[in-house]
Amino acid sequence: MRGDRWSAICSLECGRTHFVPHSCRNRHCPLCQGQAALLPVPYFHVVFTLPHGLNPLIGQNQATLYNLLFGTASQTLVEFGQKRFGVQLGITAVLHTWSQTLLDHYHLHCIVTGGALSADGSKWVSAPPRFRFAVRALSEVFRGKFCAGLRQLYARGELRFHGQLEPLAHPGTFAKRLRQATQHRWVVYAKRPFAGPRQVLAYLSRYTHRVAISPRRLLELDKPARTVGFAWKDYADGGRSKTMTLPLREFLRRFCLHLLPERFVKIRHFGFLSNSQRQERLAQARQLLAPSGQINPAAGTLPQAEPPAREATPPAVCPHCGSRQLRLIEIVRPPGRPLPAVIDSS
Description:
The chain is of the alpha+beta class. About 30% of the residues lie in helices and about 25% in strands. It contains eight helices and 13 strands.
C-alpha cells in the first residue's frame, strides 16, 4: 500500500506502540475496503465451482463469464437468505481461477454475514449459530441461473468462439455442450464458518493481490533444463504435499491462464453490502450491534471500521488493551511525499 502510516502510543494504559496503515484508498486494499465492510458477527463461507467442461468457453470469454459467475452466485445466496430469514444478507465474493497445479479451475468464494438488518431497519436479525443452506438446493438453483445466463449471452451474440471452439457457434452444437455441462450436479461447498471478522480480513488479505501461485511454493528454476519446480497439495490424496516440475513454457502458459482482464475487479460486495447505500447500512448495523458505540477488540472484532481521512487523527482504540487514550508520535510518509508542518497531535 502506498498510503502513510501513523505511529501511535497508548499513553495511559499499556504503553505499547503500534503502526496504523493510513488509507491508500485503493479499492483492492483489504485494510481500506475490507475492514470498512466487516461487522462483529459470524461469517459463513460458501464456494461455487463451475464444471471443467466449460473451461475452454470461459477461457475465451473471461470477463463476460466471470461477471455471470459473480451475478448468479450472489443472486442465489440473496434469494435463499430472503426465503429463509426474510432479510437481505451481506456477501463478499472473491474470484479464484486456478487449481493447485495452475490449471484452470473457476470458482467463487463467498463470505456471507450471519444475519442482516430487518426490512424496516429497526433491528439486526441473526442467523442460527449453525446456519447453512442446503448445498444441493444451492447447487441446483445456481446451475439453473448460470445456464440461463449462458443462453441469453449466446442469443445476444456476446460469446466468442475461436479455434477449436468454432463449432460452438452453431446453435445445435452449443445446446449439446450445455446439456453435457448440466448432466452432473454442480459443486457448491459450504465450508466451516470464520471465527470472526479478523479471520475474514486475514483471508481477504491473502488473496487480494495473489495470482495463481505464491512465491513460497516455488522451489526450483533449472535454467539448463528450462524447468520450474513447485509444491502443491493433492486434495484427491488427502491433501498431501507433493512437488511438480514443468517445462518453463508450460509453466508460463498455465500462469497466464489466470491473468485477469484489464480493470477487472475480483473482490465484490453484494446484498446489503453492495455499493448502493452500503455505508449507511453498515453504520446502522453497527449502531444496533454495539449500542454503546465501542466494540471490544479483545473479543475478536474490529475496533474502528471507517477508513481514516488522509490528514485525520489515528484510530481511537488501542488494539492491545482497548484503551481509547492514544497519542500520535509521527506520520511515516512514502518517499517523495512531504511531511505536514505539524505532526504532533498530543
